[in-house]
C-alpha cells in the first residue's frame, strides 16, 4: 500500500462515523475529501468510493428487508431506471476522450452534485419538519398517522424518472443515492415514514451502486489499495457512529455536513475565496429563516426567536407528549 494509506483509513473512520451518526454523507464526503486533501485524481476517487460503497450497502439493506420497511415495487421501478443509467454514466465519461478532459468533467460534475446535495439536505430537513409537525397534530386529533409500507401506491413513471436521473448522477460522481434521490422520493411520497424511506432507498441502492461499480471496474480508474484503505477505516466508523447515534447531537452534525458539502462543491468548481465566504454566510442566515417560516405556518403558538435558536443550534425543546410512531424510529445509515 501507499505510505499514506493510514491517512486515508483515518479519513474513512471519520466519514464512516458521520454516516453512522446521521444516515447520510458517505460518497458526498469521501470523494471530495480524497480529491481535495489527498490529491487523488477525480476519476480514481469516484471509482474507488463506489466499489467501497458496494461492499457496505448490502448490510443496511438486509437489515431493512428483515424489518419489513421496504416497498419492493418501489424498489423495482427505481432499479429499472437507475441500473442502466448508472452504467451509462460511466460510458459517458469514457466517451469524453482523453484523460485530462475526463478528469475535468468528473471534477465539475462532482462539484455541481455536491452543491445540489447540500441544498437537498436543507430541503429534506424542511420537508421532514413539515411532515413531523403535521403527523403530531394529526395524532393529537386522533387520526391515523401510521401506514404500512405496502400501502404506498407507487407512481411508476415519476419513480422511473427519478431512478434514471439518480443513476446517471451516481455513475458519474458517486453522489446522489442517499441525498438527491431521497429528497425526490420524499416529494413523490409524502406519507412514507422515515424508516421506510431510508430502507427503500438503501435496498434500491445495492443494484444501483453495483452497476456503477462494474462500470468503473471496467472503464474507470479503480485502485485496490485506495479502496482497501477506505474500507479499513469506514467499516468500524459506521458501526461506532450507529451505536452512538441515539445520544449524539445529530442535528448539529447535519448542519456541519451541509457546510462541508457546500464548501467542497464550490472548491471543486474553483470558486474564489470571496465567493465561498459570501455563499456560506448567506446560507447561514437564510436557511434558519426558512426553518422559521415553515415552523411558523405549522406552529403559530411558538415564538419566532426560540425557533430561530433551534434552527441555528439544533436545540430541541422537551415535548409534553410522546412522539407518534411514524416519527419515533431511528434512521439507520444510508448513502
Beta fraction: under 5%
The shape, in one word, is globular
Category by helix and strand content: mainly alpha
Compute the CA-based radius of gyration: 20 Å
Overall description:
By secondary structure, the protein is mainly α. It has helices spanning 5-22, 26-38, 42-67, 72-95, 99-140, 156-173, 180-188, 194-219, 224-244, 250-268, 273-298, 304-313. Helix content is 75%, strand content 0%. The longest helix is centred in the middle third of the chain and has 42 residues, at 99-140.
Question: In a nutshell, what does this entry contain?
Answer:
The chain has 335 residues and is mainly alpha-helical. It has twelve helices and no strands. The chain is 75% helix and 0% strand.
List keywords for this structure.
single chain; 335 residues; mainly alpha; disordered C terminus
SSE diagram, text form:
Blueprint: H1 5-22, H2 26-38, H3 42-67, H4 72-95, H5 99-140, H6 156-173, H7 180-188, H8 194-219, H9 224-244, H10 250-268, H11 273-298, H12 304-313
Amino acid at each position: 500500500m501507499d505510505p499514506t494509506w493510514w491517512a486515508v483509513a483515518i479519513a474513512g473512520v471519520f466519514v464512516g462515523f458521520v454516516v453512522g451518526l446521521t444516515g447520510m454523507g458517505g460518497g458526498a464526503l469521501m470523494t471530495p475529501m480524497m480529491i481535495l486533501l489527498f490529491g487523488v485524481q477525480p476519476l480514481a476517487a469516484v471509482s474507488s468510493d463506489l466499489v467501497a460503497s458496494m461492499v457496505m450497502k448490502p448490510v443496511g439493506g438486509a437489515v431493512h428487508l428483515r424489518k419489513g420497511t421496504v416497498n419492493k415495487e418501489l424498489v423495482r421501478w427505481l432499479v429499472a431506471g437507475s441500473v442502466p443509467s448508472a452504467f451509462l454514466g460511466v460510458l459517458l465519461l469514457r466517451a469524453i476522450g482523453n484523460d485530462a478532459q475526463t478528469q475535468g468533467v468528473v471534477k465539475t460534475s462532482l462539484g455541481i452534485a455536491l452543491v445540489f446535495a447540500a441544498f437537498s439536505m436543507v430541503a429534506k430537513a424542511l420537508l421532514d419538519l413539515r411532515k413531523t409537525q403535521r403527523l403530531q397534530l394529526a395524532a393529537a386529533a386522533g387520526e391515523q398517522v401510521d401506514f404500512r409500507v405496502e400501502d404506498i401506491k407507487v407512481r411508476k413513471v415519476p419513480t422511473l424518472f427519478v431512478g434514471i436521473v439518480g443513476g446517471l448522477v451516481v455513475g458519474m460522481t458517486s453522489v446522489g443515492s442517499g441525498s438527491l434521490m431521497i429528497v425526490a422520493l420524499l416529494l413523490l411520497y409524502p406519507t412514507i415514514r422515515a424508516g421506510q424511506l431510508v430502507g427503500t432507498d438503501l435496498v434500491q441502492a445495492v443494484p444501483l451502486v453495483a452497476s456503477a461499480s462494474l462500470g468503473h471496474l471496467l472503464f474507470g480508474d479503480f485502485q485496490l489499495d485506495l479502496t482497501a484503505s477506505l474500507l479499513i477505516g469506514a467499516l468500524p466508523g459506521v458501526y461506532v457512529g450507529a451505536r452512538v447515534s441515539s445520544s449524539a447531537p445529530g442535528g448539529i452534525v447535519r448542519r456541519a455536513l451541509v457546510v462541508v458539502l457546500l464548501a467542497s462543491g464550490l472548491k471543486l468548481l474553483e470558486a474564489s475565496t470571496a465567493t465561498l465566504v459570501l455563499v456560506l454566510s448567506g446560507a447561514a442566515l437564510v436557511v434558519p429563516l426558512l426553518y422559521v417560516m415553515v415552523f411558523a405556518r405549522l406552529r403559530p403558538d411558538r415564538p419566532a426567536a426560540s425557533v430561530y435558536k433551534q434552527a441555528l443550534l439544533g436545540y430541541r425543546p422537551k415535548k409534553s407528549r410522546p412522539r407518534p410512531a411514524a416519527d419515533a424510529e431511528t434512521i439507520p445509515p444510508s448513502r
